[in-house]
């Protein structure tokens, strides 16, 4: 989560808006905090059913996957099936095979994230 918060700061500094899925519990309490610079730009939700998740995904410029410990992140193929590119950590255990110039951008760490976002938004 530490890296994701740093990445959110980079994205919010560029005016990117977004949704953090499943970062609230059923009572609407935030399970994790977001940087103050993201107030008004990032929406946090409870767990979403598949239809709700797809609705948010269809409206997105890209799907952000900061994690590295996911052997088969289903959300990648779901986003690509909806024609939404991915911004993905190149060091992810699984799913990297879906990342091409046509499907999105990869980054190694916080140092090349901003450039990866800019390339993704230009395409």
Short description:
The protein has 123 residues and is α/β, with parallel strands linked by helices. The chain has four helices and five strands.
Explain the overall architecture:
The protein has 123 residues and is of the alpha/beta class. 34% of the residues lie in helices and 14% in strands. The protein is built from 4 helices and 5 strands. Strands 3-4-5 form a 3-stranded parallel beta sheet, with helices on both faces. A two-stranded parallel ribbon has the order 1-2. The model has no long low-confidence stretch (mean pLDDT 89).
Q: How would you describe this structure in keywords?
A:
single chain, 123 residues, three-stranded parallel sheet, 34% helix, globular, alpha/beta, two-stranded parallel ribbon
Main sheet characteristics: 3 strands, parallel
Strand sequence of the main sheet, in spatial order? 3-4-5
Number of strands: 5
Task: Work out the radius of gyration.
Answer: 14 Å
Strand content: 5-15%
Give the distance, in angstroms, between the N- and C-terminal Cα atoms. Answer: 28 Å
Oligomer: single chain
Order of helices and strands: HEEHEHEEH
Indicate the mean pLDDT.
Answer: 89
- Helix content class: 25-40%
Q: How is the topology of this model organized?
A:
Elements: H1 2-13, E1 18-20, E2 42-44, H2 50-58, E3 63-65, H3 74-81, E4 86-89, E5 104-107, H4 110-122
Parallel strand pairs: 1-2, 3-4, 4-5
């Amino acid at each position: 989560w530490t890296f994701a918060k740093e990445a959110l700061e980079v994205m919010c500094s560029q005016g990117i808006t977004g949704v953090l899925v499943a970062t609230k519990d059923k009572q609407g309490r935030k399970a994790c905090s977001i940087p103050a610079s993201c107030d008004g730009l990032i929406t946090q939700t409870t767990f979403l059913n598949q239809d709700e998740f797809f609705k948010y995904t269809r409206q997105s410029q890209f799907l952000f996957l900061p994690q590295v410990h996911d052997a088969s992140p289903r959300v990648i193929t779901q986003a690509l099936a909806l024609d939404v590119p991915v911004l993905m950590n190149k060091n992810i255990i699984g799913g990297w095979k879906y990342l091409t110039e046509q499907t999105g951008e990869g980054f190694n760490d916080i140092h090349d994230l901003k450039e990866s976002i800019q390339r993704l938004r230009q395409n």
